[in-house]
Amino acid sequence: MIDKEKFINIMNRLQAAWDIDQAVHDLGYKHIVNIDLDTSFLMSEVIDLLELVTGDSGGLIEWYIFQEDFGRSYKPDDLVNDVGAPIDISDFGKLYDYLLTLKD
């Protein structure tokens, strides 16, 4: 298992790369210029590696990144346990901690 600090660092770097890619895309779109950094292949590979080293076989990391915008759109009721209680994955550290519980 990857350690927590490294996991958080990788997630922060992925988020920064994604944000830059989106900003460049938006800038190009605004000025009708085709500027495409297309970090999607690299992001996909890093996400696959993170899923592998954390044992995330359910795609939680990918969901957290793309559906929850790196947790920025996350609301407490977006993920609940078997009895309907919310699971707090509101930041990268809490996501890591939750992923640890899934390994047991």
Describe this structure in words.
With 104 residues, the chain is mainly alpha-helical. The chain has one domain (4-103). It has helices at 4-30, 40-54, 60-66, 92-103.
Provide a compact summary of the structure.
With 104 residues, the protein is mainly alpha-helical. Helix content is 59%, strand content 0%.
Helix and strand topology:
Elements: H1 4-30, H2 40-54, H3 60-66, H4 92-103
Task: List the defining traits of the structure above.
mainly alpha; 104 residues; single chain
N-C termini distance: 12 Å
What is the total tally of β strands? 0
Could you tell me the radius of gyration in angstroms?
15 Å
Helix content: 55-70%
Unreliable residue stretches? none
Number of domains: 1
- Name the helix and strand elements from N-terminus to C-terminus, one letter apiece: HHHH
Number of helical segments with 4 or more residues: 4
> How much of the polypeptide forms β-strand, as a percent range?
under 5%
Shape: globular
Largest sheet geometry = none
**Average pLDDT reading:** 88
Structural class: mainly alpha
